[in-house]
């Protein structure tokens, strides 16, 4: 039980902590997920934290590393989800789809008191990534942190002098209540946190994050949006930003004055510490369509401090400035192999799929409802899509119905995202994220019907689909990664309201690519079903398991066998029970 006295005591303690660099850990080790009370903006609340920290510790890896993270679920606070998964955002998971960490797509959640090791290779990927819960809306309550894969042979290494834990800059929204106690679509945010520190309106003047630089040096800053909802515009007084990376993909350098970053996106930019020694504001503001965080009357909100060595340890005195020369993603052109796959014309892919976005409103005030893609609302099945595939469920019968799109191997896929007026007015711009791939954005938001770029479009894994019915954002990628990959809005409240589909890629190859399946993965679903039938958990929205697996010809239902044996493939056993609360066992 978390008492008010303990909350106040911990708040005082948190306020006394001074700014520090992002803590970091190697890619092999343990992550203990716990409930602790923190006060990152001065207001104490219980949260879901990795090793008791927000953000979660930076994972520092090097190109070619193997990640082996044993995740321990030690959650106790039942005002929030206690089961969990971890998704490694932007990592392709080639031949390790089971480690993608998406509840009821690639695994069942890990239950309290149990552990699961995420074991996968990073291959040739480099750049800026992050990791977060992908179960219900849990990452909004704190389970989110940065992941960087360093490249010893970075082609841009001559452009900067410093690139380490001190140059990682996370930005996030923060609410004072657990997500389970918020409206379905929250209309406000209590504070913005930069590297886990911030202030709220009329709150105490807590310590802000300080980024320390030395005059004359150049820094590769890695800006990571670990936001649950808002997009942010970020700028630094007196300093330009030379962008070289978007979402783990290197691009030709582009110098701008400000960056708009959507939930899940990442940018690397070069910061030249060429200004007079002093303190400078790092500003942020929520972008159009995002829940606002209003400036406070007596202290800056939504900000951090860039401090030159030799400057006074005080806050800048400058008034809030206005962002100028905002980055447009159409300015970005990939450094390597810049052309989009397929033929350089509309419809020039092997398979062209139109995915219109809409919302079915239940109430206008407060706003509630479900999103649809192609007229279907995504609802998580009770048996993960990957498990269905491994047990031979045909493409036509994969659940959830109407939300799984089988894709052939080694083909170019084009996806378009037109929006109805309802969807355009419902919390847009929507940032769309595809797991398992980067993609070429052949038409960006805000461009016209004649503005397709097949020669050198921006390449990334999260794209804004705009806020207008005139937007028809279009992406292309190649099906070179077998497995079920979810595509969804990265505003987590929208995902919980059904804004997702699953792209089931190269189904015949899935079992071959993933062999052998780790034994502890096989035990996740039986353990979760038993836990979920015993404890009342506040799982929110359509990310929670709802749909039963496909009925067999004789009318019985399939559920996972809770007692897999070492070296076996995961088996299914028949039961006449239609709910997902009970599981029969083999003797």
From TrEMBL:
It holds the Pfam family Cu-oxidase_2. SUPFAM superfamilies: Cupredoxins. The keyword Nucleotide-binding does not apply. Residues 1-21 form the signal peptide. InterPro entries: Cu-oxidase-like_N, Cu-oxidase_2nd, Cu-oxidase_C, Cu-oxidase_fam, Cu_oxidase_CS, Cupredoxin. Residues 567-587 are annotated as: Disordered. One of its GO terms (molecular function) is oxidoreductase activity. It comes from the Eukaryota. Residues 568-587 have a biased composition (Low complexity). Belongs to the multicopper oxidase family. This is Multicopper oxidase. It comes from Neolentinus lepideus HHB14362 ss-1.
